[in-house]
Amino acid sequence: MNATALPTILPAGSTDCHSHVVGPVERWPMNADRRYEPEQGPVDDYIAAMAQLGIERCVLVQPSIYGTDNGCQIEGMQQIGRDRCRGIAVVGADVADAELRRLHDAGMRGVRFNLRSGGLGIGDLETVCRKIAPFGWHAQLFTSAPVIAELEPQLRQLPVPVVLDHMGGPDPAQGLEQPGFQALLRLLGDRIAWVKLSGAERLSGQDSGYDDVVPFARALVAAAPERAVWGIDWPPSRFYRTPPQPADWIRQLVKYVQLHEALGRVLVDNPANLYGFPPSTARRAP
Fold this sequence. Notes:
Elements: E1 15-19, H1 43-53, E2 57-61, H2 71-80, E3 85-89, H3 97-106, E4 108-114, H4 125-132, E5 138-142, H5 145-156, E6 162-164, H6 179-189, E7 193-197, H7 200-203, H8 214-223, E8 228-230, H9 246-256, H10 260-275
């Protein structure tokens, strides 16, 4: 499928802000104590998926399976191209400034705290954020809505912005008023946090369409249209009941972002601001 066959044509400079490169295992061995078996995701396959979707830029996120060895993502970033790709690293709490500089020069722009699959934890949050602040990085958290509710005061005191994976992990069955989701809306409105419109298949109680997630995505965009970004979470994860086609990702996005101008913000302007893509490749703001 090419971009012209999709439900809508994405604007120039569109960015996938959450994907991973995985394998080959003989080159990039995984941690023996990993908590899940990942789907293979060679960089060439991801580049082909970007072309199918009409995505021009991307952000590769270090998965927990590789621990603090960011080499697989860095190699993928180099293959995709420096102007087109940024990354989110995983580091140890004792990371040195020299290593952060090396990662920054490679295109990394944040550190991931994975509270679900292993890696840096909440106990490391303040220490690591103080280290990354001079580089202009942000903290990316993969967690759930109840944890966001607990962490809200602490997140407001951090010296760096916070980015929440997968809509902050709400439970659709608990509705929009659940405390953790309301905490996220406050953090967005106060310009403390950003959020990724991704992971519907992880959150939904439905086998397809994931319409139970749509009200949450729309509420996030309405709360702060300048603080939302989008990601496909490639390669397609084990959470899908039916393997997605390229058009499925775009159909889901269009459910979330219904106004053309908001689509341009979410796909182009906001990622350029958050990840520092070269201005020459960004959509010109109105």
